[in-house]
Amino acid sequence: MLEAIETSQDPTAAALEVRGLEVVFATDAGPLKAADKVSFAVPAGRTLGLVGESGCGKSISALAILGLVPPPGLIIGGQILFNGDDLASLPERRMEDIRGARVSMIFQEPMTALNPVFSIGSQVAEALRIHRRTSRPEAWKAAVEMLARVGIADADARAGDYPHQLSGGMRQRAMIAMALICRPEVLIADEPTTALDVTTQAQILDLMMAMQRDLGLAILFISHDLGVISEIADEVAVMYAGAIVERAPAGELFERPLHPYTQGLIETLPGTGPRLPRLPAIAGQVPDLGALPRGCRFSDRCPLADDECGASEPTLAAAGERRRVACWKAAP
Amino acid sequence: MRGPMADTAESMMALALKRFRRHRLAIAGAVVLAVLASLAATAPLIATILGLDWEAVDLLNRFAPSSAAHPLGTDELGRDLFIRLLYGGRISLLVGLTATVVAALIGTAIGLLAGFYGGRLDALLMRFTDSVIALPLLPLLIVLAAVDLDKLGLPPSLVQSQYVSLYRIIAIVALVGWTTVARLVRGAALTIRERDFVLSARGYGAGGFRIMTVHILPNLISPVIVATTLSVGNVILLESVLSFLGLGIQPPIPSWGNLLTNAQELIWTAPGLAMWPGMLIFITVIALNFLGDGLQDALDPKATD
């Protein structure tokens, strides 16, 4: 079994493991598979980068972990293993106890992800008070400490500020404080740096790595930005049109991408080498989930595709010691 | 970067207040309402100082012109008009305020439940709202005003109280007046529940009820305040209409509406009797509208300071 191979890959038990996750959206045009047999594992203290274009199912997979897939989406298969529980089958009541306390999430746009009518201090304190029996003054004190810890200068005063009074970087720090105040084991970060400028981006990445060291966090880091992923991830999973097409340790992936899609993504990165007249691009567009090509889902855009690729779909198969790739043409 | 404005922690309310202060008409409206309200509130004190009584009939002194003893003259029974207007203001403002606040509470609760939970509950509550809206208001009010409260099993002390018409009108207006707020709140709740901070709150473990009350409700307060302010004026008008039709506040208790009613046959004999209450209703409603407009601008979350 494929799953069996995957578990044996991480002998140190993964903090979070997703196996064969399938998420379907029931639409008027028929069911759309936003996540198709997605499998990955994040060990404690490590970071898994989940990369892919917009709409490839990264965020849906992340939301599925917390049981927050928006309707009409539905998890129809697979397991999400956390601490011996399958989160995919846990009742909502128990999910509420896990969210924020043991598995937290931070979002892309910290302006809209913070409630505009409450000060950041009270929002951080609320995140704590939901899960722990704490008096208001104590929760406030803990919130101020947490804000200081995520690098908000003069946290005592800033805790009383409202989201609109803070800069984007400060807001994202506040979001991180909210996500981490209950000391979760897993942090899911959905494009946490995308809305920030490059310097702030670097600071937030540093902060996340520091918090990871302190708390032994397992981080699932979602981004469309390979540059960011290369800085923070230990392992990378590349998603395309709802499925993971390649998974590898970060160093190996960037050095020698196996899947033509990954190769394309890396080639399109503006490098520091000689200036090319034109940045290369991957031909075509991400296919509509309702109209995937026959066979390999990348076959209609793949420079290497032939009849075999159009005939049957490749599965994620081992390609080296710690790598796997879903491609008929990938040379191991 | 943090701007200089942000150095002192300013709450949303402080910012709103700052925007509000720039709205001159709204300030004027607020001042007018404050004056009217404090005059009405201190009516008994003013009456004592002037040595007047709102009920004292003086048949030898009917239709008296304004004088030192009677600042605005007297009515057809020789009662002092000025004091009756103040007492009428107490009733009219009280009815307007209480009825709209009760209506706003009912409307907020119904709209919030419908908008937040959606689905069948939403459909049910909104069809109910539609049916209340579809009821023709005036005939309904006339019927409700004619309900025999004795037969409803209400305590006799309440039914026989001279203020029963006051309670009745507040209840009637609240029962039919909540629909606007319910629709407004539902619409706002529908958009707010899709905002990222709601997802984020779910992400840190907040349950449905907490999200509804802690995260969505406070974001709805401003439109509700604005709608309520604007509808206080309508209710005062409605009270005058009902009183004008003889269905509202019953004499001898004065309200601006029934003062106006009483004056209708005397419009040629003593025009002041109709003019003063009419003017007060007019001024109050205008002031409330200015105030509502100002609040709308000040409380708009999208407004920049």
What Rg of chain A is obtained from the alpha carbons, in whole angstroms?
20 Å
Give the overall form of chain B. globular
Number of strands of chain A: 12
Any idea of the CATH class of chain B? Mainly Alpha
CATH superfamily of the largest domain in chain A: P-loop containing nucleotide triphosphate hydrolases
Largest sheet of chain B: none
Query: What does the largest sheet of chain A look like?
Result: 8 strands, mixed
What proportion strand of chain B? Answer: under 5%
What kind of assembly state do the chains in view correspond to? heterodimer
Q: Could you tell me which chain pair has the largest interface and how many residues each side has? A: A-B, 35 and 25 residues
- Spatial extent as radius of gyration of chain B: 23 Å
Number of helical stretches of at least 4 residues of chain A: 13
Question: What is the CATH topology classification name of the largest domain in chain A?
Answer: Rossmann fold
Secondary structure class of chain B reads mainly alpha
What percent of the residues of chain B sit in helical stretches (DSSP H or I)? 55-70%
User: How many discrete domains of chain B?
Assistant: 1
Question: How many individual helices of chain B?
Answer: 13
CATH homologous superfamily descriptor of chain B: MetI-like
Q: Give the overall shape of chain A, derived from the CA principal axes.
A: globular
